[in-house]
From TrEMBL:
<dbReference type="GO" id="GO:0005886">
    <property type="term" value="C:plasma membrane"/>
</dbReference>
<keyword id="KW-0472">Membrane</keyword>
<dbReference type="Pfam" id="PF12823">
    <property type="entry name" value="DUF3817"/>
</dbReference>
<keyword id="KW-1003">Cell membrane</keyword>
<feature type="transmembrane region" description="Helical">
    <location>
        <begin position="100"/>
        <end position="119"/>
    </location>
</feature>
<feature type="transmembrane region" description="Helical">
    <location>
        <begin position="64"/>
        <end position="88"/>
    </location>
</feature>
<protein>
    <submittedName>
        <fullName>DUF3817 domain-containing protein</fullName>
    </submittedName>
</protein>
<keyword id="KW-0812">Transmembrane</keyword>
<feature type="transmembrane region" description="Helical">
    <location>
        <begin position="20"/>
        <end position="44"/>
    </location>
</feature>
<keyword id="KW-1133">Transmembrane helix</keyword>
<dbReference type="InterPro" id="IPR023845">
    <property type="entry name" value="DUF3817_TM"/>
</dbReference>
<feature type="domain" description="DUF3817">
    <location>
        <begin position="17"/>
        <end position="123"/>
    </location>
</feature>
Length: 147
């Protein structure tokens, strides 16, 4: 028999779902930027430079950036957002009391391009429908209270 969230955790699940939704969208966008940056860097041989001698935002040959290297910045930002995403994944997973494979599946959303968007929609629907079913089951009917 699968475990279900505790009654006392249901309000926290709603907050965890909101946090997970925001974290998954940010991580997904950052992952797409990272993929694009890798294509430009290793496929075309350029890096993105901010406020350098070629202008405010310019592509420069690899490893010649003298100002702020946005290619490295995108890499670092995605790494830190992925840590936040993993935390949001863990929080939602532990409150919902899901099996461990589901934690691993959601965690893969931050490393497989576009997967976080699909998982965010699927997990969001699943948790929302669960919460609605649970609140409908716990709300006493009008007939039961008047009898």
């Amino acid at each position: 028999m699968p475990l279900e969230p505790r009654e006392s955790d249901l309000p926290r699940v709603r907050g965890a779902l909101r946090f997970y939704t925001v974290a998954s969208i940010i991580t997904g966008v950052m992952l797409l930027l990272l993929c694009l940056e890798m294509i430009v860097k290793y496929g075309l041989g350029y890096e993105l430079e901010l406020a350098g001698p070629y202008g405010f935002l310019a592509f420069v040959p690899r490893e010649t950036a003298v100002a702020v290297n946005l290619s490295t910045g995108i890499l670092i930002a995605h790494g830190w957002f992925y840590v936040v995403y993993l935390f949001s994944d863990f929080r939602l997973w532990s409150l919902m009391r899901w099996p461990f494979w589901k934690f691993l599946l959601i965690a893969a959303g931050g490393i497989v391009p576009l997967l976080s968007f699909f998982l965010e929609a699927r997990i969001g629907r699943e948790v929302t429908s669960y919460l609605e079913r649970r609140s409908a089951a716990s709300t006493p009917s009008v007939e039961a209270t008047t009898a």
